[in-house]
Amino acid sequence: MPDALDVPLTPSSVPEPPATAVQLNHTAVLARDRRLSAEFLAVILGLEVGAPFGPFLPVDLGNGVTLDYYEQRDEPIQSQHYAFLVPEEQFDAMIARLEAVGVTYYADPNHTEPGRINRLFGGRGAYFDDPDGHNLEIMTRPYVRP
Question: pTM for the whole thing?
Fold first, then answer.
């Protein structure tokens, strides 16, 4: 019996999964202090930090996806953008939690409209930085794409 690695793969030999089969399961988020950053996100979004999994500290987003915080103390953290589709009825509470912890939110991704929200696509949205400078976004309606 041939080893699976010895069998050449061609587009016709690999069954194509249905479009709904590919889903994001998790992604690693670099942080100087994984606990601080994971707890920050969990508090703002009204979620909980999970149990450590190896070097990762997960925040379960509730849709089968986790953000797995990983500490990187010796190198600069490259800012990334993470956008969260949130329920309309929870948006005001998230804004209130940002205000309670003294984090400025903005209507735009470039952070030029402090203390304001946007109303894109008939919903509401805001941008803010996490402790490591990641540009986080909360929005109540997904973007309408062409």
Answer: 0.84
